[in-house]
Amino acid sequence: QVQLVESGGGLVQAGGSLRLSCAASGRTSSIYAMGWFRQAPGKEREFVVAINWSGRTTYYADSVKGRFTISRDNAKNTVYLQMYSLKPEDTAVYYCAAALGRLRGYSNYANTFPYDYWGQGTQVTVSS
To answer: What is the pLDDT of residue 55?
Structure first.
């Protein structure tokens, strides 16, 4: 079992920044990759960014490239999502997820199906 707890969400004005954290506990040695997804009201959950546990592989959704950065601290079993230049359309509940199986390629990392564990989500609201 892996437990994931997100934090760092909040209300920010357009153009502002936030940093989300996702702390993993339990069988963290089994994690292959971590991802961030988001879900706005009335919309499907969508991929934001993902990183494998070695940190050598990252994938970003086009909508956040150049504005968001994912990083990890293995000593703390924590993944971070640094968000800059936030836009109102970034408003959503942000979820982190952990995949235990090996992922290959963008389509794997960007799909919700391969992820085995999910956090409870943290709300990010960007005002215009």
So the answer is: 85
